[in-house]
Automatic annotation (TrEMBL):
Membrane-crossing segments per the record: 6-31, 52-75, 87-107, 134-153
Coiled-coil regions listed in the entry: none
Boundaries of every Copper resistance protein D domain copy: 52-149
Highest taxon listed in the record's lineage: Bacteria
Organism taxonomic ancestry: Bacteria, Pseudomonadati, Pseudomonadota, Gammaproteobacteria, Chromatiales
Keyword terms, alphabetized: Membrane, Transmembrane, Transmembrane helix
Organism for this UniProt entry: Thioalkalivibrio nitratireducens (strain DSM 14787 / UNIQEM 213 / ALEN2)
Protein name: Exported protein
GO CC list: membrane
Length: 156
């Protein structure tokens, strides 16, 4: 197995995780408080709808890249799940949970928020945005733990 190819796959895997988790960190820790302070619900929910419309396609692509590179490394480099450390098992489990939470965000509260905005039902749009915020907060914590496991877990 080419060490260059392995390095590319590890790099893609790490960059994908960094973009997803970094995007959530920026949204949750910087944009959310600023938007809540400065914008009324109609403007705030519309801002988030437009932001999510640009970020979520990236996340779908990242999910594919993380799964493809992760499984390629596990099975192509290490020879299967039985040959990797517990940190990889935990990283995979948390990553799958994060992907399920993202899919829920996308297909449930985000879809309902878009419908509420289209109908100018601002209280409902704000409620759905609150649900999205909660799930992104959960995913952010899981993502930070997953990155810590992926980068330092083999030494624990």
């Amino acid at each position: 197995m080419s060490s260059v190819l392995i390095s590319v796959m590890v790099g893609l895997h790490a960059l994908s995780a960094a973009v997803w988790v970094g995007g959530m960190f920026f949204a949750y820790m910087a944009v959310r408080p600023a938007a809540a302070k400065l914008l009324a619900v109609p403007e705030r929910t519309t801002l988030w709808q437009n932001s999510f419309a640009r970020f979520f396609p990236w996340v779908w692509g990242i999910v594919v890249i993380l799964l493809a590179t992760g499984f390629w490394l596990i099975f192509g480099v290490y020879g299967g799940m039985g040959n990797v450390g517990a940190h990889v098992h935990w990283m995979l489990l948390l990553g799958l949970v994060m992907m399920a939470i993202f899919a829920h965000i996308y297909f449930a509260p985000y879809r309902r928020m878009r419908k509420a905005i289209a109908a100018q039902d601002w209280p409902e749009a704000g409620r759905r945005l609150g649900q999205i915020r909660m799930f992104i907060g959960i995913n952010l914590v899981l993502g930070l733990i997953t990155i810590a496991l992926g980068t330092g877990g083999r030494y624990w």
